[in-house]
């Protein structure tokens, strides 16, 4: 019906937006240089809440790599999110809503909360209101490090969002030398370890990411370290020791 209402102007693609290759979606003549004004392309989406966060993270990684829909230049996006998620995306330093999404989006884009649509405007009616958020990629990111590295540092820092920030930084390192490495990274980044994650500015996160990158360059195995894997292995070993103890008691 949409195609018939606008013949030659609408192309309907049935597919999964998480896997759809947008680098082939638009005419080549619309491509612009990254430092130019945004191209005459605009991604607009009324996103299902279940895919909104993984999708914006995917597109932010595309912004960082300048691929996907951003091979055409600084393609703008206007997207809907659950109101609470929208507040996180635009949250400033010190705000209760400050989160991983705040840093990941704002270090790559200018992020604007355009307006809020009340839930009763939709059919079926959702239980929450909806925020309409616009993203315009920056000419230069505020943190000049690979996306995966920035995401790992930011995710770790906010892992203990109500604790001092050094607690989250600590899980970037194996337990054996966690305290030493954490202190080294905080000093190199010149960040007060007693600040809460929500109190950290973009400049703080830049310092932390730069310091972590330097440490990863010095130790090639560091970036592959995963706190959860070590924790699981620790719990597994503890369980195995407990089972072995019970078996020994049964034999007695």
UniProtKB/TrEMBL annotation:
<dbReference type="InterPro" id="IPR023165">
    <property type="entry name" value="rRNA_Ade_diMease-like_C"/>
</dbReference>
<dbReference type="InterPro" id="IPR020598">
    <property type="entry name" value="rRNA_Ade_methylase_Trfase_N"/>
</dbReference>
<feature type="binding site">
    <location>
        <position position="16"/>
    </location>
    <ligand>
        <name>S-adenosyl-L-methionine</name>
    </ligand>
</feature>
<dbReference type="InterPro" id="IPR001737">
    <property type="entry name" value="KsgA/Erm"/>
</dbReference>
<dbReference type="GO" id="GO:0003723">
    <property type="term" value="F:RNA binding"/>
</dbReference>
<keyword id="KW-0808">Transferase</keyword>
<feature type="binding site">
    <location>
        <position position="1"/>
    </location>
    <ligand>
        <name>S-adenosyl-L-methionine</name>
    </ligand>
</feature>
<comment type="similarity">
    <text>Belongs to the class I-like SAM-binding methyltransferase superfamily. rRNA adenine N(6)-methyltransferase family.</text>
</comment>
<dbReference type="GO" id="GO:0006391">
    <property type="term" value="P:transcription initiation at mitochondrial promoter"/>
</dbReference>
<dbReference type="Pfam" id="PF00398">
    <property type="entry name" value="RrnaAD"/>
</dbReference>
<keyword id="KW-0949">S-adenosyl-L-methionine</keyword>
<dbReference type="GO" id="GO:0005759">
    <property type="term" value="C:mitochondrial matrix"/>
</dbReference>
<dbReference type="InterPro" id="IPR029063">
    <property type="entry name" value="SAM-dependent_MTases_sf"/>
</dbReference>
<feature type="binding site">
    <location>
        <position position="46"/>
    </location>
    <ligand>
        <name>S-adenosyl-L-methionine</name>
    </ligand>
</feature>
<feature type="domain" description="Ribosomal RNA adenine methylase transferase N-terminal">
    <location>
        <begin position="2"/>
        <end position="139"/>
    </location>
</feature>
<protein>
    <recommendedName>
        <fullName>rRNA adenine N(6)-methyltransferase</fullName>
        <ecNumber>2.1.1.-</ecNumber>
    </recommendedName>
</protein>
<keyword id="KW-0698">rRNA processing</keyword>
<dbReference type="GO" id="GO:0000179">
    <property type="term" value="F:rRNA (adenine-N6,N6-)-dimethyltransferase activity"/>
</dbReference>
<keyword id="KW-0489">Methyltransferase</keyword>
<dbReference type="GO" id="GO:0034246">
    <property type="term" value="F:mitochondrial transcription factor activity"/>
</dbReference>
<keyword id="KW-0694">RNA-binding</keyword>
